[in-house]
Write a structure and sequence with these properties.
- The protein has 234 residues and is mainly beta.
- The chain has a domain at 60-219: Mannose-Binding Protein A, Chain A (Roll), CATH 3.10.100.
- It contains 3 helices and 10 strands.
- It has helices spanning 75-89, 107-110, 177-180; strands spanning 15-23, 26-35, 60-64, 96-98, 117-121, 124-129, 161-163, 188-193, 205-208, 214-219.
- Strands 3, 4, 5, 6, 7, 8, 9 and 10 form an 8-stranded mixed β-sheet that branches.
- A hairpin with a 2-residue loop joins strand 1 (15-23) and strand 2.
- Mean pLDDT is 85; it is low at 1-18 and 26-40.
């Protein structure tokens, strides 16, 4: 009769595997392997890490406000103040001006700096206008990113509305809610759409001034805006 030596392994964590071989007609345990996240060479398995946060580089930025406002902005200075407050609340450095025209000044004259102007969504940035001269051309990409680094979606449609009073060539349209001081339902202001990269970005349609829309905000100086610590949510 053959005798078999059965040697058990008492598990403490995970699963154990008994490896045996036949020696001199007897089955003898070779060793036990614990399945606890380690291989047979007792080396820990590699851990998986997420993407690394990008390094911020100096530049000028443009964003579309997360907030929406009726046509009574408090004039051009009121629109600028709303841009500045939006940026400061989000921790964005620098000085910002709204892309707005009035009966006194064209929108393109109010933007300072040489660019390029970038827009940020999450950890991704894209150049929208490569230079000041390009402000009167189509944007390279839609200005969807808010000061929070969040994306303005296509629906509902009114969420994409942006007050501009400015034609594609950067000059005043004349539809400006009485120089951005009126929110009556019988006065009209020109709007653009934040989700397009053609002339409709600034010259899309008219909206009654009691309605609400966002603002485009351009930085006037070169700044370094750090990326958030955590990666954006999908």
């Amino acid at each position: 009769m053959l005798w078999f030596l059965l040697i058990g392994c008492v598990p403490s964590l995970g699963l154990l595997e008994s490896r045996c071989e036949e020696v001199g007609g007897k089955m003898v345990r070779e060793r036990c392997v614990q399945d606890s996240g380690r291989g047979e060479d007792d080396t820990a398995l590699p851990t998986t890490t997420g993407p690394e946060r990008p390094d911020a580089t100096p530049g000028q930025y443009v964003f579309v406000t997360d907030g929406q406002f009726d046509g009574s902005l408090g004039g051009l200075s009121g629109g600028d103040a709303k841009c500045q407050l939006s940026a400061e609340r989000a921790g964005m450095p620098g000085t910002y001006r709204a892309w707005l025209s009035s009966s006194q000044v064209d929108g393109r004259q109010r933007i300072e700096g040489e660019g390029p102007w970038r827009n940020r969504i999450g950890w991704t940035e894209a150049v929208v206008f490569g230079s000041k001269e390009e402000l009167v051309q189509f944007p390279a990409t839609a200005i969807r990113g808010t000061e929070l680094g969040e994306r303005v979606d296509d629906f509902p449609t009114f969420d994409t509305y942006v007050w501009t009073g400015t034609l594609q060539n950067g000059v005043a349209d004349g539809s400006d809610c009485n120089n951005w001081g009126n929110n009556n339902s019988d006065v009209v202001g020109l709007i653009g759409y934040a989700n397009v990269d053609d002339g409709d970005w600034t010259e899309a349609n008219g909206q009654y001034c009691n309605g609400e829309a966002r603002l485009y905000c351009f930085s006037t100086d070169v700044v370094t805006w750090p990326f958030p610590e955590e990666p954006p949510e999908e």
